[in-house]
Amino acid sequence: MSHDGHHSIVIPAPGPEFVPHTVAHHFDSPVQEFQSMKLGFWLFLATEILLFGGLFAAYFYFHEAFPETFRVGGAQLDWRLGAVNTTVLLVSSWTMAMGVRCAQTSQKQKTLMFCALTLVGAVAFMVIKFFEYKAKNDHGLVVFSELFSGYNEATGQLAWFKDYDGVMANVPHGHMFFAIYLTMTAIHGLHVVIGAGLIIWIMKGTAKGRFHAGYYLPVDLVGLYWHLVDLIWIFLFPLLYLVP
Amino acid sequence: MSAHTHNDHGHAHADAGHDHGGGLQMGHHHVSSAAMFFNVLAILLVLTIVTVAVSRFDFGGANMLIAMGIASVKASLVIAIFMHMKWDTAINKIVFLSSFLFLSLLFIFTLADQATRRVDHEMHTTRTPVDKQWVHPSTLEKH
Amino acid sequence: MSTNVPVIDAHPTISEPPKNYLNCSRGFMSWAGTLDHKRIGIMYLIGVSAAFLAGGVFALLVRLHLWEPHGMLFTNETYNQIFTLHGAFMVFIFVIPAIPGSLGNMVLPLMLGAKDVALPRLNLLSFYLWCGGTLLATLAIVLGGFDTGWTFYAPYSLYTDQAVVSIGLGIFLLGFSSIFTGLNFIVTTHKLRAPGLTWFRMPLFVWAIYATAILQVLATPVLGITVLLVAFERLYNIGIFDPRLGGDPVLFEHFFWFYSHPAVYIMVLPAFGIISELVTVHSRKPLFGYKLMAFSALAIAIISFLVWGHHMFTSGQSTFAMFAFSFLTFFVAIPTAIKEFSWVATIWKGSIALNSPMLYTLAFLIIFAIGGLTGVILGALNVDLHLHDTYFVVAHFHYVMMGSIALAFFAGLHHWWPKMFGIMYDETLAKIACALIFIGFNATFIPQFIMGSQGMPRRYATYVPEFEGYHHASTIGAVILGSGVALMVYYLLASLLIRKPAMQNQWGGVTLDWLTPTPPPLENFATPPSVTTEVYDYSTLDYESLRTPVR
Ligand code: HEM
Ligand SMILES: [Cu+2]
Fold first, then answer.
1. C264 lines ligand 1 (CB under 6 A)
2. ipTM over 0.95
């Protein structure tokens, strides 16, 4: 958006491998642009907290209603896989923080490296998640192929909840834990995938030299998003895998 | 609070790189030390182990509180250090933290309703039965 | 390093009209791809007006059907669909986005002395999310309609064989449209105020939109997850709202009203903002209790998060929860009453101009007093057990949503119409339309208060013959109301063809929106404004601008 006769503010590139940044025309200063975008993004993150918050409220509600179901259900999850994934996300959060730091100090190669490491974390997380889902599938706790096949009112059978081993046979509404587990982890997983996409986008920009000490805002914001994904998992891990 | 609190800085940092490690945006922004990031990561990993460890013991009703307490400490570290909130502007802090405040309203009222419904049930079952039957007004007229 | 040179538009030549945001570029893409807040505002205006007219047609169908006790037009099933469409279109597609989307977009950056909103791209995205949501809602009609009422209560919404998923996802998109609008306005208000425009120099419309935005950002995500969960229930029976699977339908109501009570303030706060502007401009008197008004807007926003359970008094909440919610509900009345009193005190001894925006404003003041007070009546637990789900509730929320919010929207539309387009509508027709709307509205809903208090249940396709007279009155009122709206649509559209020039400052406002040329140039101000006086200081009014016609 440039208009004839308007002088735009340009943040110069700190070196030949970088490109300058032009401040959007409706801002008076780079600081105003930076702060506006950042405030906007924090607001967005606040909406994410409330969106997930609804799921957490449902978790606590039914944890209270069916404590046994949650205890037995939680025991069916492999806490080791959960702990590994927690570690993966925490480390990737650290690499992301380092990536932002390197962008702030115009270290292009290092920014790329740390972003790539974060990306590896994202992929590792999803791969582990896949094996976890597969195990649930094999035990009939979440039968993915019949996820959308509905509920049989006459038999009281839920198509996706078969419980081949009968582990949930003695607790009320055994599917409830797995329904909440599936929904929370799937929505969280979706955020991981979106985060991975954003990191790839950031890496492209970094490679082109768009981000440097003078203008690292997008790296910063994607970093915040990635930390949020981590933040939510920090609560999901004890609630789902170590049901208190 | 003014929209242009930082304008003074804005004009000052016209030449990039004269301030500590930053360019145009850095007049007010913080570059954390790598060592601090690493320490935080270490603490987070230790706390993860602690979470798993305490889950082996049964503290009865306190289980949930302990688990959520540790998770909150971890979350606070991520927010304060990794997300730079500690060095962020007041409004950004208010915005993000208020999301937890308002979320807690959803939790408090919904869970309070659920918890006190049990009280209702007890009241209904223990109350002495009413001796007079409730009579529909239309039947009264017939006397 | 280039410096920030103030933007000075080329001086207009004598023969050509000056460039403004309307005539600066042409063609479909110059609108569909625009990042200019004013053009986005106009697109919203067109969109929400169309939604209002569609919702209005549904309303008239409902009223006509109820002419006879056994129903005149539809089967019961179709009737259910039609009142649902009416409610869903009016609430989600019209009232919630109407004022922030159209007038908020148009006026807020002007009032702040900004060149645009802080995030113009996000602003355009909001508009397209609105379009997408509206499209999905319309698609749901094609897919067979939906009959759950605008509230989507579980478990019925889980079991009915209708297009709930489509409308649910539509509402998800509409929700994010609303969130992004609010987010944008918060950032704009914080970061883009002109030099000298301190918080307590901001016009109250800005305060109101700001308070609304807080609600939009903090409450709407919960609606988002709620409709998603309903969609999940229908797709894979997650079970948390489904009593057959151990779920609790009351949990759905908690989630829904956690959003939807604050949502009534998402709807009404912008209306408050408009009225606050209009009472001062058209009585040419500073607003009475300005700071108190600003704080009460924020107080309403906060308190509105604490009362949602007053919609659930008969739903099986615990006694304790009912008591708490009923108790807290009364606190809403305090800041709301402060507002009503301030408006009246502002008009008092003012130099009142009885033009059409002011007439709509006065109508608002009367109707909102009734709407708000009947809310307090409903908030009383024991009374509500009797009145819940009767026409009394229907009348209450139409007094606030149609009689207050829609009327405030009309008031604002008439107030800023000359600013937006540089032209005036026919004032005489405007006054007639306002009278028709006021009379028709009251004729429609006063009988509903009476019927409701006598037990006429809402959302029924048929009724006992005792209520026939009231229903007749109500339907006749609705037709009068509808004809008033039709007249308004007519003269507003006609004004676009007749092009009678408005004045540069048609009403004599002194906020920044009236200090830029009419219609505003592309980036709003020829030179970046700065503010040196207090808000609503009419001693600064430049009377010349009241007499200078738009070229
Ligand atoms: C100011 C703008 C207001 C708006 C837009 C509004 C809107 C609404 C709506 C839409 C409903 C019906 C919801 C449904 O479909 O079931 C409703 C019901 C209710 N309103 Fe309001 N309202 C407003 C003000 C108030 C106030 C000031 C109070 C009380 C202090 C209040 C108390 C209630 C109560 C208690 C109900 C529930 C009635 C029932 O369903 O039994 N409202 N309102
Ligand atoms: Cu309410």
1. yes
2. no
